[in-house]
Every structure is written in structure tokens, then in C-alpha cells.
Amino acid sequence: MVAHLSKILSNSKNVFDFVVNEGNGVKGLSDMGIQSLPVQYIQPLEERITTSTVITDDSIPIIDASNWNDPKVADQICMAAQNWGFFQIINHGVPIEVLDNIKETSHRFFSLPAEEKKMYSKENSISSNVRYGTSFTPEAEKTLGWRDYLSLVHVSDDEAAEFWPPSCREEALEYLKRCDTVIRKILKVLMGGLNVKTIDEEKEDLLIGSKRINFNYYPKCPNPELSVGVARHSDISTITFLLQDDIGGLYVKKLDSNAWIHVPPINGALVINIGDALQIMSNDKYKSVEHRVIANGSKNRVSVPIFLHPKPSSVIGPLQEVLKNGEKPIYKQILYADYTKIFFSKGHDGKDTIECAKI
Ligand SMILES: COc1cc(/C=C/C(=O)SCCNC(=O)CCNC(=O)[C@H](O)C(C)(C)COP(=O)(O)OP(=O)(O)OC[C@H]2O[C@@H](n3cnc4c(N)ncnc43)[C@H](O)[C@@H]2OP(=O)(O)O)ccc1O
Ligand SMILES: O=C(O)CCC(=O)C(=O)O
Ligand SMILES: [Fe+2]
Q1: Which sign, positive or negative, has the C-alpha torsion 30, 232, 117, 18?
Q2: Residue 217: which CATH number?
Q3: Which reaction is catalysed here (predicted)?
Q4: How many angstroms separate the alpha carbon of residue 345 from the centre of ligand 1?
Q5: Which of 3, 4, 9, 255 is most buried, most CB within 10 Å of its CB?
Q6: Structural domain span for residue 243
Q7: Which ligand 1 atom sits nearest the alpha carbon of residue 276?
Q8: Could you tell me the pLDDT band of residue 110, with boundaries at 50, 70 and 90?
Q9: How many Cβ atoms are within 10 Å of 52's Cβ, its own excluded?
Q10: Is 15 a member of any domain?
Q11: 29 within domain boundaries
């Protein structure tokens, strides 16, 4: 094992082959007991998180949704979307056992042998809606991220039954179903804040026309302070509905500052954030905020985001309802498939993708 690890670490190509091409992921390195971070994972100084860039005297809002009929809940959600782009929601109605079950499912998938996980890699997967991989876009990135992932696009339950990995497909489908009600409630509230009274079929295609569930795995990392799990980015979704475990490591950028704030794990809570698509539709009223993840030095972390998106064939831009008071549009109309393509063709680079949609 030690000799094998030394051989892998002896040059850059061997590390890339082992982690990316052979499908071992960073979990493979971590499981072999790697003691120091390979050079490909060392972030430039300006990308590292330090005590001087993290503030501890502020936090993203925590919203109690016990009573959805209370107008204060809607107010808090809309204010959080405007001022933070992120919030945590508690008493949302998704039972704790459902949350625990999907975290367990994630651990189960990543515990599979590399040969089994590799069946779902970009090169081997028989469906483009199923992808196992590592980092974000390894071939395009200067520095790699300390994260492995399984990404599943939901087209239909039948398609999922055919192509999703058997070790997690039923659980993932069940989880998507159990989250649907709260996702719709949050979107209804957010639309209310933009003067959109009803979510008709056309709006539904714009807001939740496409769904993706990801399983992220951040194995214990030898030098977390030098690396990132997921680099600085904003999501391209309308909203993201994220479950994290109890390890911590998600940091959110405070609006109009260079300060980063930790999102503390709260048992039973879900983290909701606004993505670029909704920032564009709201003409900047709601904010899609940069965030990143730092892996842990002693524990394996999992997270399970559900990304809600416009249909790829949707054309997105500031909504009529937002502009009808004479407000000037900040963004042009753009085909969402084109927006997605730009995002997935490069490494994470903060909020750069949204710039291409500006007038
Ligand atoms: C943050 O907000 C998000 C995030 C997410 C998802 C987060 C994830 O981390 S999921 C994993 C993401 N990584 C990938 O999917 C890897 C994609 N890139 C690559 O594989 C390569 O490294 C590449 C060199 C960057 C591109 O390779 P290339 O051979 O040139 O092209 P293909 O990979 O064959 O792509 C063909 C085609 O599909 C488009 N495309 C690629 N990946 C995706 C994708 N994951 N989703 C949608 N479309 C994708 C690609 O642009 C090409 O388009 P064509 O029209 O030219 O065929 C989710 C949601 C959020 O809000
Ligand atoms: O793991 C997390 O907490 C967040 C992951 C994330 O930002 C993403 O997958 O887009
Ligand atoms: Fe994200």
C-alpha cells in the first residue's frame, strides 16, 4: 500500500490518472492514508480561506417555517433572498428520517469499489444524465477540488429506473418527492415577492423545468487549509436546496464585502440559496451569492444539493412582472442551455458566468 501510494504521488500524471481517469477519486487518496496534499490540490494564496477573511459575528438567516401561513415567514424568506442570497430553514416539513436516509445513501454510494463507481463516469456512463466524477471540470481546472460527486438529472422516474445507480436510485427518487412540497412553497413565496401571483405551466418550466440531485463526498483531507472542496462559485439554478451533514465547511460570501461566513450545520435544517437564473429573472432583486466548501482534516463530509433549473429550452431574462413598473432590464434574454454550457465548460470562477448575460 505504501509503495503503491509513493508511486502514485511520484508525478502529477500518476495522481491525475489515479484520481480522475481510474475513478478512485480523492476518496481513493484519502483511504490510502495520504499524509500531505498533492501539488495539484494546493490553491494559490489568494484563494485560501484564512482567519482574516472569515467573520464570526454574523450569520445567514435561520427561518422557522412551522407556520407557512404566517406572513412573517414569507417576509423573512424574501428579505433573506435579497440581502443574503442564502438562508437555513427549520421545521420545513421534510422528516428528519428522510434527511438521515439520504445522507446514509450518499455514504453507501461512495463506499462502492472504484470499478463500480467508474461505470458512471463521463467516459463510461450510458446516460448523459448520470455522472460520477471528481473536482468540477478536472480537464479545465488549474487546481483540483478535494471532492468526489455523483450527479443525477431527473428527467422521469422511468428514465431514472433505467439509468441511475441501483445503490441509490430509489432513495434519490423518494428524497426528490419528499422535498417537492417545500420547494414549491419556497418558490411561491419568492415569486410573490416579485409580484408573480400564480405559477402557471410556463412559470413552472422556468423555475423547476429541470431538476438535478447531486451527492457530494469530501473525504478527510491532509491539508484542508491549503485546499478547497468546491471552489468559489455561484449556482446557476433558480434555487438550490442543500442538505449538509454535521461536519461543517460551507462558507458564504457576505454581500458587498470580501468577508466569508461559515454556515453552521443545524440538525434537521436545509440550506436554501438563490442561483443565477433567479437573480436574472428578478433583475438583481434576489442575489445569487458566491460560496465554497473546505474539506475537513479528520472527517469525511457529505452534502446533497437539489438544483432546480429552467428547462434547457427556456429563454430566461428579467420577468415582465418585475419590469412592468418601468425598471430597466440588467440582463438580456438568453437560452438557458447556452448559459449551462458556459458554466460547465470551465473551472469555477466566482460569479463570472452571469456577466455573459448582462446587457
Ligand atoms: C453550482 O451550481 C450548479 C452546479 C451543478 C453541478 C455541479 C457539479 O459539480 S456536477 C459535476 C460537474 N462537472 C461536470 O459535469 C463536468 C463537465 N465538464 C467536463 O466534463 C470536461 O471536463 C470539460 C473539458 C469541461 C468539457 O469536456 P468536453 O469533452 O468538451 O464536453 P463534454 O463533457 O462531452 O460535454 C458535452 C456537452 O455537454 C455540456 N455539458 C458538459 N457537462 C455538462 C453538465 N454537467 N451539465 C450540462 N451540460 C454539460 C457541454 O457543454 C457540451 O455541450 P455541447 O452542446 O457542446 O454538446 C448543477 C447545477 C447548478 O446550479
Ligand atoms: O457541499 C456543500 O455544502 C455545497 C456544495 C455546493 O456548493 C455545490 O455543489 O454547488
Ligand atoms: Fe454551490
Answers
A1: negative
A2: 2.60.120.330
A3: (E)-feruloyl-CoA + 2-oxoglutarate + O2 = (E)-6-hydroxyferuloyl-CoA + succinate + CO2
A4: 6
A5: 9
A6: 57-357
A7: 61
A8: very high
A9: 8
A10: no
A11: no
